[in-house]
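User:
I would dearly like some help making sense of a protein record. Take your time, and here it is.
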Amino acid sequence: MISGNLISLKSGNFKPLLTLMVVSHIDQDHILGALAFLEENNQKSFIEIKEIWHNSYRHLQFEKEKVKRISEGEVRILKSEIVMGNSFRNMLGKEGVSNEDISVKQGSTLASLILEGGYPWNKSFDGKAVNCENKFRVMKDNFTLDILSPNTKKLKKLSIEWLRKLKKQKINFSLSNEKIFDDAYEFHMLRKEEQKIKESNISKRNESDMVSEIKGAVSQHINEEVDDSIINGSSISFILEFNKKRLLFLADAHPDLIVENLTKADKKNYNIVKLSHHGSKRNTTTQLAKILHSDIFLISTNGISRHSHPNFDSLAKVIYYQKQRQKSFYFNYETNTSQLLENSNWKKNYHYDCFISDGFTITEVEI
């Protein structure tokens, strides 16, 4: 939540307030902007940040007892992980992320920038992990958040993944609270490849028959592929309620936990839903699509088709199960799926509209 006149951000006449900054999880398309922003704000503070939510190494739970300091050999291993991770991040510019977006100082991690800036980190959770099982509802100045993801089970998988990585380097790798662990852990998670999935071939579909297209898509729910990425499972997802408006932010969270906690929250309607994982079919199951009662759906991608986001089947489920409701889909980039949905007959019969940005122009959504 940002309050104040954004035009005056760096004028020196006014310092706006960011009540809460949420970085959902460690993934290149979720943290690069945060890295650049925090580095600049640390150099010359132009926004006051009251709290940051982000789960890092220091928030994971390990059964293994920690030592005060690790050995020099272990330090070298962690430094090697940091070097490889930093090189990987600098290569992202070749995959469509501009060098300007990743021009943070050599070796910067989100954890190090949060510590450097002295920002209150997971304060609402007493400095521990943002975890829906530890606290389901958080009250802020003028808004509330119901935490949907992650839970202890999803976070535990991160701990196991990190220990497995360390044991490959040294069987009895020690753990400590030294800052180098935060950096090495973050760079390791950043380098993990997202599982490739088989997406639908939408280019050969018959645009004249939305009914068969939709039914064909939703009939696949019996053998639905469901996201099992450890990193995506750690996503911080929540319902935000402000001024009688209800916004649902799904990050890249797993649909099983989202369905469970949306049912627990017992909220029937949302003013806006930001679809999970850029509209990937593995994150919008039939069960989830049935309870996403909203007038507005946001689909955020980076404009690159490497993962075929958003997937037609994912949006088809939402359109089909919310067919009695007039709804709008907002795309920040034109994609194959957004082009396919620009069908006047489909829009009329299934009560939806599409708004497609060029990826550069700001799109205002009124609720």
Remarks:
- The first strand starts at residue 2 and ends at 3.
